[in-house]
Amino acid sequence: MSCLISRRAVLKGMGAAVALPWLEAMLPKLSLAASAAKAPVRMAFLYVPNGMHMPDWTPSKEGKDFELPATLQPLAAFKDDMLVMTGLTADKARPNGDGPGDHARAMGAFLTGVQPKKTAGADIRCGVSVDQIAAQTVGQLTRFPSLEIGCEGGRQVGNCDSGYSCAYSSTIAWKSDTTPLVKEVNPRAVFERLFGKGSANSSLRDRYQRSILDNVAEDAQQLRGSLGLNDQRKLDEYLTSIREIELRIAKTATEQRTAGDAPTYSGPAGVPREYADHLRLLADMLVLAFQADLTRVSTFVFANDGSNRNYRQIDVPEGHHDLSHHGNDKAKQTKIQKINTFHTTQLAYLIGKFKAVKEGERTLLDNCMVMYGGGIGDGNRHNHDDLPIAFFGKAGGTIATGRHVRYPRNTPLNNLYLSMLDRMGVSIDKLGDSKGRLETLEI
Length: 443
Fold this sequence. Notes:
With 443 residues, this protein is of the alpha/beta class. The protein has a domain at 41-185 and 275-423: Alkaline Phosphatase, subunit A (3-Layer(aba) Sandwich), CATH 3.40.720. Helices cover 33% and strands 16% of the residues. The chain has twelve helices and 17 strands. The protein has helices spanning 32-38, 102-110, 130-138, 166-169, 187-195, 199-207, 217-224, 229-259, 275-291, 320-324, 330-356, 413-423; strands at residues 10-13, 16-19, 42-47, 82-89, 147-150, 159-161, 164-165, 174-176, 179-180, 297-301, 310-311, 316-319, 358-359, 362-363, 368-373, 389-392, 403-412. The strands form six sheets. Strands 5-10-3-15-16-4-17 form a seven-stranded mixed sheet, with helices on both faces. A hairpin with a 4-residue loop joins strand 11 (310-311) and strand 12 (316-319). The longest helix has 31 residues, at 229-259. It starts with 9 loop residues before the first strand and ends in a 20-residue tail after the last helix. The relative contact order is 0.21. Mean pLDDT is 90; it is low at 261-266.
């Protein structure tokens, strides 16, 4: 069946290759409903550290008639797009005879379901993560097999948690059982990877203060003339989003050049001073990467497990990890809950961006699976059962959202991953410590 333009079409120019979003012209002979059904399913895994204050996370009622507790209140507008999942467990994050090191194991086991080998040397070993299982199959259909991003870097060598290598403490994506995938924390580097053709071209644009869109303007104008009004609007909105991100990154670089030796900030060029700005820049680029089908698989680490980042911007000057060992102190629990709510507020921003993108009669969120959570339940207990897991998106209409589902105690988290892989067209019998698929996901 012919189409006006290819799904793989890009706007080209010197130092730039800007992929296109989903357009009606890519499937002109199908109805919008049928076209939407052809849109790909994407998956993203979002990680937050140090557990939650669970009483303010877990709904009291199951099913559709559930109320959002305090920490989930920022997501009220997306309640119908959400599954709150209670009872899922990362057993391989437990000690299982290996002693201390819960934060390293929490990240290492979160997407693998495999017990990380306790070593601070080069002989690290974990397991292939669910995102990379998907990338092995669907990654060949996109420019990038997967996208690994985050707001906190971390060493890949040395001892970072009770004898566990720093590689475990700073990585959730594993290409093989011995190959962790380092996440990119610099928004500028992410932008150049998605839309540029190398650092030399970036430097050239900087020198002449040019936008990446200046380099593809002629191509974009020619394409616009061949599109219908709806597609013209979508293209303009998409290119405007790219330019807005580019301006925010440029502003960050300018602020860094004029900040001198300001004691409140340190980081690579392109990383905003404010944590929320950093999260939102990366969130916006994740949306663009999915929208343009540059990748269908991503991991996004808000902060590494064990992170002791402070949250002065919300009047929490203490370190996150220190507070998580609250000893049932009410004042500390209140501050932990404020941190948890800060994170869900940023999550709501991302989910809203996904939902704002139209793909036929559906939205980008409808065609996604976005899992948010962490490998520790309560930070004080360091438990790895009853994890805080929230899920968004309908995977192309195959998942019933708008519910709180409580699973039997010790249900493997990896059971969810097998169900997600099925919806990506990747069918495997086992992943890590999985024992089957999750029930009750379907409509």
